[in-house]
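INTERNAL TRANSFER SHEET
From: sequence group
To: structure group
Subject: S4 domain-containing protein YaaA

Please process the attached sequence and return the structure record in the designated field. Keep the field labels unchanged so the import script can parse them.
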Amino acid sequence: MNEVKINTEFIKLDSFLKWCGIASLGSEAKMYILDELVKVNNEVCTQRGKKIRIGDIVEFNGEEYKVV
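Return from structure group:
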């Protein structure tokens, strides 16, 4: 599991995908989310603006990213 540090209370899901290098562009992050390829805490998430907080686990393409 990869650990990704954020310096704020939360980060929006599309921004998180860019922050940890899953997506290089916002439009790429949007496509991944709308195509139901991203899970947050083991549930498929289709909300680009979902607030990701410390302790959440984001999963994409078999990789897990824990927010610390």
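Handover comment: The first helix runs from residue 13 to 19. The chain has a mean pLDDT of 95.
Transfer complete.
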